[in-house]
Design a protein that fits this description.
alpha/beta, Rossmann fold, 4-stranded parallel β-sheet, two-stranded antiparallel sheet
């Protein structure tokens, strides 16, 4: 009996070791290779990897862009006079940005400036769902919970299900992520990206949960307070949502209420409205992500003091403050009402 139990124990240990070795070696989400990520056909956990990278290089950058994957079209190297890094990660939310900022300051990373891109996803996405997703689980949750880390990434079933995608990417030599760009700049989309989206099938890209505007604004308010206390310049802006997503956000997700609340906390640059950019499919990869060329327009407005009068009249590139928010939101509401009656 003892020999049998010993054999079973040895076999079980062997199985566990094989599972660990394969999970670490294949590493579909690149969490075991944060300093040398591999383009393997699967989107890595950018949130975790980027936080590890910045904490290991605390003096490399002096400003950061936070936001969901939508800010991944902003080429931060175009911002003059700053060593800026784009922290974009999938479904980035204000609560995660708050945690990241606290982690930065606790570990000697002291930015001079922080940009945060916001839109309806900022308050219509489930935090709880993300903590259980290998691609999105936040750095702080994985850092503080070893069992969660093991459950998400040491999993032979997960590895097996990823192999087909990984092998196909290697076979075709498909580059799903530019490793140099990832570490030097952080953005996702190059210029001239071609959209293969079928616009006849277009639907709004909004979150999965009912709107929780109050919590989102509380997180933004705390970020603002921390920035003020630590002499960090905070620049808030709204992502230019595609017209379909924007109108759905206004109609179904109380987006204009969110903007009113945001202006009570801090001024922000507005790029989401019905304007010549957001009304044109040519500026979008699909109804969620705008192209890098749009990101350049945003940098021109926020960082280069440039204005585009025709777009500004339509709400793109307007500095919204506590003093002008009521009038501005009234204009946006009128725009949306007119659009829905077309």
């Amino acid at each position: 009996m003892k020999k049998f139990l010993l054999k079973i124990s040895v076999f079980a240990l062997y199985v566990v070791l094989v599972e660990v070795v394969l999970s670490v070696w294949i590493d579909p989400f690149n969490v075991f290779h944060t300093e040398h990520i591999r383009s393997n056909g699967i989107e890595p956990n950018k949130h975790y990897i980027k936080m590890k990278y910045i904490l290991a290089n605390p003096d490399k950058f002096d400003s950061f862009i936070f936001g969901s994957s939508r800010v991944g079209s902003i080429h931060n190297e175009k911002i003059p006079g700053e060593k800026c890094y784009n922290m974009t990660y999938s479904a980035g939310l204000p609560g995660w940005h708050l945690l990241n900022l606290k982690t930065f300051l606790e570990n000697g990373v002291h930015p001079q400036k922080i940009y945060i891109g916001l839109d309806s996803l900022s308050y219509t996405w489930s935090y709880e769902d993300q903590t259980n997703e290998p691609m999105r689980c936040p750095y702080e949750y994985l850092r503080d919970d070893y069992l969660r880390f093991a459950r998400l990434y040491i999993d032979i079933g997960m590895v097996r299900s990823s192999l087909e995608t990984i092998i196909e990417a290697w076979r075709k030599n498909t580059e799903t992520i530019n490793v140099k760009v990832f570490y030097d700049y952080g953005w996702n989309h190059s210029y001239g990206a071609d959209s293969k989206f079928d616009w006849s099938e277009a639907n709004p890209s909004i979150g999965k949960e009912s709107a929780d505007i109050e919590s989102a604004l509380e997180y933004v308010c705390e970020i603002d307070n921390i920035c003020r206390a630590n002499d960090i310049e905070l620049v808030l802006f709204t992502n230019p949502m595609h017209k379909i997503t924007y109108v759905a956000s206004v109609k179904d997700c109380n987006y204009l209420e969110f903007l009113e609340g945001l202006a009570e906390i801090s001024s922000f640059w507005n790029f989401s409205s019905l304007n010549d950019v957001t009304m044109s499919n040519d500026y979008y990869l699909e109804t969620s992500h705008y192209k890098a060329e749009v990101g350049d327009l945003m940098i021109d407005v926020m960082c280069n003091g440039k204005s585009y009068p025709a777009l500004q009249q339509q709400g793109f590139g307007v500095k919204v403050t506590r003093e002008n928010v009521k009038e501005f939101v009234a204009m946006l509401r009128s725009q949306a009402e007119d659009f829905r009656t077309e």
